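Here is one chain, start to finish.
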Amino acid sequence: MLSEIMPRQILKTVSVDELKRGLSLADPEIDNKTMDKYVLWVFDTTPDKIAEVESIELSKVISRLQNGNVRRSGRKF
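Its structure:
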């Protein structure tokens, strides 16, 4: 289990708002439609249930983003 390997302060959960903030920092030119698509994918939910979604572990967020069709909208710096 991840919690046995990593110190507790490193383990973190990520909320929908935190993911959106992170995506917009990583790609300032991302549009709302693309952002929503990524958020729905990561949290495995639908638009009508996004307000009810609970935070998930950072490791799951990373895994879903790595395995999804995620592309940068803007240019790289």
